[in-house]
Prior knowledge:
mainly alpha; 68% helix
Amino acid sequence: MNPAIVLLFIVVIGFLLFIATRHRPAAEDAGMHRRRIGDGLRHLRALEETYAVMTPALLSQIPDSQVLEAVLANLWAKMRPGLENASEVMRGLSLPRQALYAVYTVTGSLRQHGAAQTLRDEAEWFPQCAQALRALEMDETAALLQSVQAGDAQAAEAYLESFSALDGKGRLVWYVREHVEAFCDEVPSP
């Protein structure tokens, strides 16, 4: 066999393998159901324009697999880049929005940064996150979070495992669907 053809074949196969490992559209386009809380802030930023103003009609059209991304993109649209005014903005929004934000922020920070940094950066959201978890009937998960807040860094991994095992994201989707008007900017008058 001609060595030039063999070399060309190897280069083509190498290129195809490179492309196959670099581009995974299924993971990028799959939505929040394929992402963990704490992943995809850049993806949420891209959705801000679409969901800048949330209405009941818009929220009802969003599939469950994308509802958390849509609600979070709506919240991010209200904040300055860098999220430096996040606490101020969130205090002016509905309690259900604050609860979802608290769970998302604390859980994501624990996953990305660990207990020590989360306690430093997100301490104000721990009580509201624990309260939201109890409202979602995730009492054991809330207790683990309180252990993290009390300084038990080992409890952080158990918290994340419990959150996943009890389908925390699925419960948040249910919560949004049960409190639609609380997650909307414009609610039609009766």
